[in-house]
Amino acid sequence: MSKELHGKVAMVAGGTSGIGRETAVLLAKAGAKVVVAGRREKEGKETVELVRAAGGEGMFVKTDVSRAADVDALVQKTVEKFGRLDIAFNNAGIEETFVPIAEQSEENWDRIIDINLKGTWLCLKYEIRQMVKQGGGGAIVNMASVTGLIGAPGSAAYAASKHGVMGLTKSAALETARNGIRVNAVCPAVIETPMGERLFGEPEMHKAALGLHPLGRFGTPVEVAEAVVWMCSNRASFMTGQSIALDGGFLAGPNLLA
Ligand code: NAD
Q1: 66 lines ligand 1 (CB under 6 A)
Q2: Is 9-191+220-247 a domain of CATH 3.40.50.720?
Q3: What single DSSP character describes residue 219?
Q4: Which pLDDT value is given to residue 234?
Q5: What whole-number distance in Å separates Cα of residue 59 and Cα of residue 81?
Q6: pTM greater than the 0.85 cutoff
Q7: Which ligand 1 atom is the nearest neighbour of the CA of 158?
Q8: Are 41 and 47 in contact (CB under 8 A)?
Q9: Which residues of the chain have pLDDT under 50?
Q10: Which of 23, 31, 106, 246 is the most buried (most CB within 10 A)?
Q11: Catalytic residue list contains 158
């Protein structure tokens, strides 16, 4: 792999497993130094080990993205250790167990919105501050979902949080364009991660969810990571305020031939 991100400093929020972990490793392979942020110390350090095994340099910072003080400290520690911040993947997120709106608790709504939406806003806030302070330039990718574009019965809070991430992405892109900062989003359908397994592991759900993917399979974390690394590279230099769906055909339309 070419070292196109050599000299860049990247941060991956929610880098302790799944898509975030795979992206941290791919960013390192592309030459970036990688700060891994998340709540679980053991898993975070494991990701840093994988970053080192890929020939990169990395650091874990224990972070809950729903807490402003944590995210502020994360960016500060990144700058203390590596001198700057060029790339950020705001990927931390939680799923929702399927419950209709009429039966959803306020606690459930607050938890999802706090982590998925407020967490992304907090990440953007402190990342943009730092990128502007260091003279501008930078690339940020937010983790949305196909449910940032369409509804999800039984997961309304999750869908609302991911639609919110799309609004944040476009607004942040407009606010920072003249600072040379690009802000985009990825919208995956079902990806084989611990979250994918929790939601769709049970045979009936697995079969139903598989039927929504015309390619006939779920995606892999590296298939999302590839798009994120591309969006963070200069090869995507004219792309901002946009999103890429990695969905095996999910959003192309109802598949009457399936
Ligand atoms: P995952 O559960 O393996 O990863 C989620 C990551 O976010 C974990 O590292 C977790 O520890 C971290 N996280 C959760 N709450 C956090 C918090 N408050 N502070 C810091 N870190 C926190 O699952 P994944 O599938 O890799 O999910 C990554 C992202 O991709 C999520 O935002 C998810 O909504 C999104 N997504 C996943 C799928 C899928 O099918 N797997 C599809 C579309 C979007």
Answers
A1: yes
A2: yes
A3: B
A4: 98
A5: 8
A6: yes
A7: 34
A8: no
A9: none
A10: 23
A11: yes
